[in-house]
Design brief:
- Strands 1-2-3-5-4 form a five-stranded mixed barrel.
- The protein has seven helices and five strands, in the order H-H-H-H-H-H-H-E-E-E-E-E.
- With 247 residues, it is of the alpha+beta class.
Length: 247
């Protein structure tokens, strides 16, 4: 491969990488991987990649007549296309493989967080100023963990959206409605959940997204108090545009 063609291929890969970042932003799937507050860094990275591609592209004005010796030298230093073609494989997979957020299958390896979420405790009071039916799953877990006695929340209305997780530790008639919370990126995601009690619990399959409403009671999982929703309504819904919660 000639040096000019090699530089053109390098520039094309840079364009592809920049386009991939902007594609993730415009499609909304970027937030399957990172916290939304880092979007500006991805935009900056995309702009830099496209700028590098612009400067890397060989200019037509750079062409000149080669002597026989110059041609021989260029041939001796010709570049292999294979390293660059190998780089194209993950780039192509990034466009072709559908993006999916973390779901209940990740709970089998990561488990469910039931601790006090102490690192985010400073925000707990602000979140709990909301009406009870506007709290999400993470808000409810915080409420129970920071309350002196979670019994104070019994009877309050709950209205949450999450994915179904059929936890084997729960008795018949119950399942978990869960969400993943992301501080920085999907690598540090942790799952939180609420127990749902319903006569139709068994009909809901793992990874189905549901909208659950009802009243809250105190329950326990492995000795830890957890919010339980006595379900009055369970409806299947589409995956939210932003499936993660952000502490």
């Amino acid at each position: 491969m000639s040096e000019r063609t090699h530089k053109q291929l390098q520039a094309i890969i840079l364009i592809g990488l920049g386009a991939f970042l902007f594609y993730k932003i415009l499609s909304g799937t970027l937030y399957f991987y990172i916290n939304a507050r880092f979007t500006w860094l991805v935009v900056l990275g995309g702009v830099i990649l496209l700028a590098l591609a612009f400067f890397a592209w060989p200019r037509s004005g750079q062409a000149h007549t080669h002597s026989h010796d110059e041609d021989a030298h260029e041939h001796a230093h010709s570049h292999s296309a294979w390293p660059l073609l190998v780089l194209c494989v993950p780039l192509a997979l990034g466009f072709l493989v559908p993006a999916r957020p973390l779901d209940s299958s990740a709970l089998d390896t990561r488990g469910l967080t039931t601790n006090a979420l102490a690192s985010f405790g400073s925000q707990a009071a602000v979140q709990l100023d909301q009406p009870s039916d506007q709290r999400n799953v993470l808000d409810w877990v915080r409420a129970f963990n920071f309350a002196a006695d979670p019994v104070i929340y019994e009877g309050e209305a709950a209205d949450v959206v999450g994915f179904v997780y059929q936890d084997q530790r729960l008795p018949e008639g119950q399942f978990l409605v869960g969400r993943f919370a992301v501080s920085c990126c999907a690598a540090d995601a942790f799952a939180v959940g609420m127990i749902v009690q319903s006569g139709e619990a068994s009909r809901w399959q793992a990874n189905q997204w549901v909208h659950v409403s009802g009243t809250v009671q105190v329950s326990y999982l492995d000795g830890v108090p957890m919010p339980l929703i006595l379900a009055e309504s369970i409806k299947e819904v589409d995956i939210p545009p932003q499936p993660y919660l952000f502490p």
